[in-house]
Specification:
about 30% strand; 3-stranded antiparallel β-sheet; about 80 residues; 8 strands
Length: about 80
């Protein structure tokens, strides 16, 4: 389950800073979210982070320019 951290977290799942996105075991992710430390990330949120530059080119949140929307979304998932 993909979650985005609201605040610093250090525990069995690792160490994360606010804004970090992690793909964690569902039970661990639910416990972290229920504690108010993070929230689930939906697939749509990742797609919205990819900026359409026109002409089939897209830019990921780290500034990488990629041709093809599917490739850009896949790269954005790796960034996050």
């Amino acid at each position: 389950m993909r979650i985005k951290f609201r605040q610093e977290y250090e525990g069995p799942a690792g160490s994360f800073s606010p804004g970090d996105i992690a793909n964690l075991n569902k039970d661990i992710a639910i416990n972290i979210c229920n504690a108010g430390l993070a929230f689930p990330v939906k697939e749509r949120q990742i797609e919205n982070q990819v900026k359409d530059l026109g002409g089939g080119w897209y830019e990921t949140s780290n500034g990488e320019k990629i041709r093809g929307k599917d490739k850009a979304i896949k790269a954005e998932k790796e960034v996050n």
